[in-house]
Amino acid sequence: MSEITAHHGLLTDIDLHVDDTGGAGRPVVLIHGWPLSGESWEHQVPALEAAGHRVVTYDRRGFGRSDKPRTGYDYDTFADDLQAVIETLDLRDATLVGFSMGGGEVARYLTRHGADRIHSVVFAAAVPPYLAKTEDNPEGPLDDETADGMKQGLKDDEKAFYHQFTTDFFSVDGQLAVAPEEQAEAERLANQADHHAALKSMEAFATTDFRDDLPHVTMPALVIHGDSDATVPFEGSGKRTHEAIAGSALHVVAGAPHGVNVSHADEFNRVLIDFLKR
């Protein structure tokens, strides 16, 4: 457990909280979703470590145990923060696993920093290629009304919003697909987020277009997604990302909500570990 300085500013540094299992195994970097933290990977870290990997998780700026500055909530900065983690730990031949908004960091990282240190990538229930429904992106699953409603809900009553969001995160057809304790844990992590950071990051994942980033994915890639994901629907996101990345592998988890890495942890881990052998 350590802090890594992701940005050296004129008046202050930005430190990210990082957990690193260490060891000589090929590294796997797990990038969490909104509005959680690196702790949301608790079902994956032990399994990956048991499979012989060095596992790194970190809390995105503004979330969890990381610093919460007023600026830097855009994908260029998020990708640069990821690069700071990779360079500081001197990770090489690494696999990047981006869950939900974390998939955007994976895509943008390759555009900005290249693939010299990267072996493979995973998009897990991830937001690429482009969530917003626009004239030139009619397949985008997020329309303006829904996006505005989310933003207003977070502004009006943060705690109530996070309770409903994390409930929907793990639900299929209105029914929780996890134990209530899992939802409560996600809600606890969400409530660690800085309010300003959460709003700006919501705007980032809702409006950032990754279609020009995906051609930079030239290494082995896996797309894993629940077919009952109501938060980031498969048809408008995972399916399109798979189609955009030549040679990518696809695994659709039957009956899984957005939080597929928790609701179907055994299947998720098995598919991920099998992919890591490539």
From TrEMBL:
<dbReference type="GO" id="GO:0016787">
    <property type="term" value="F:hydrolase activity"/>
</dbReference>
<keyword id="KW-0378">Hydrolase</keyword>
<dbReference type="InterPro" id="IPR050471">
    <property type="entry name" value="AB_hydrolase"/>
</dbReference>
<dbReference type="InterPro" id="IPR000073">
    <property type="entry name" value="AB_hydrolase_1"/>
</dbReference>
<keyword id="KW-0575">Peroxidase</keyword>
<dbReference type="InterPro" id="IPR029058">
    <property type="entry name" value="AB_hydrolase_fold"/>
</dbReference>
<keyword id="KW-0560">Oxidoreductase</keyword>
<feature type="domain" description="AB hydrolase-1">
    <location>
        <begin position="27"/>
        <end position="263"/>
    </location>
</feature>
<dbReference type="Pfam" id="PF00561">
    <property type="entry name" value="Abhydrolase_1"/>
</dbReference>
<dbReference type="InterPro" id="IPR000639">
    <property type="entry name" value="Epox_hydrolase-like"/>
</dbReference>
<protein>
    <submittedName>
        <fullName>Alpha/beta hydrolase</fullName>
    </submittedName>
</protein>
